Predict the structure of 1-acyl-sn-glycerol-3-phosphate acyltransferase.
Amino acid sequence: MLARARGFVVLVYCAISMAFFFFVSLPVMLLTGSGDLPIWFARFAWSPSSLWLAGSRVHLEPMPSLPDGPLIFASNHESALDIWVLFKVLPRSVRFIAKAELFRLPVFGAYMRLGGHVPVDRSNHVQAVQSLRQAGQVVRAGTSLIVFPEGTRSMDCRVHPFKKGPFVVAMEAGVPVVPVAISGSGKVTPKRIIAIWPGPIRVAVGEPVSPADFPDKTALLTEVRRRVIALHRRIGGAGGDEASAVATVGMEGV
């Protein structure tokens, strides 16, 4: 009962605080055409305060030196909290590739679109391909992206097969992919339930992987996923089945 109550409190806080930061940022976004200010708020105010309210302390493993320029951060996905976690720990102004349904939500959708995040409609192949092209343009223009190659949150906190979409973007843009592992967030708030059990969340960031070192997107995907699984196990996660690297349904989705 307490977990459900905390879950609803965090949900309400999330909605109200996001609306507040959105409307505070709106004049600047409209004047400059840039989504950097709301991302700054997300990194230094919205995410830390939301995680604090959720009773979740984030433990970040020592990070490797990251190269200058845009990067694609590819992370496993255990929980809705992962967005806050990545905003908090990644030392970059980043954007997300996210499912199109999120862009239809009141306030949140406008926040995502004006902030420069990239929608992908996984139910429409033509639209999905167009979204990948848009993501490639965003990266080539110098913006780092966060992607969840599993396509959805894990039900069992394991790392599931990856979709090819993010790696198509990486190969075409020639941008390094940085493997990221998150462990513990799925226990704090599991999928399909509004409840929070406070607990630690651990994060590990791996060395960048250059697309130039691989013959195609499948080889790149396989190596990045292998590294995500190794990082996940290193921080106490269950890892995943390395033999089943590529998602067989909706492979071009994100």
Observations:
- The first strand starts at residue 58 and ends at 60.
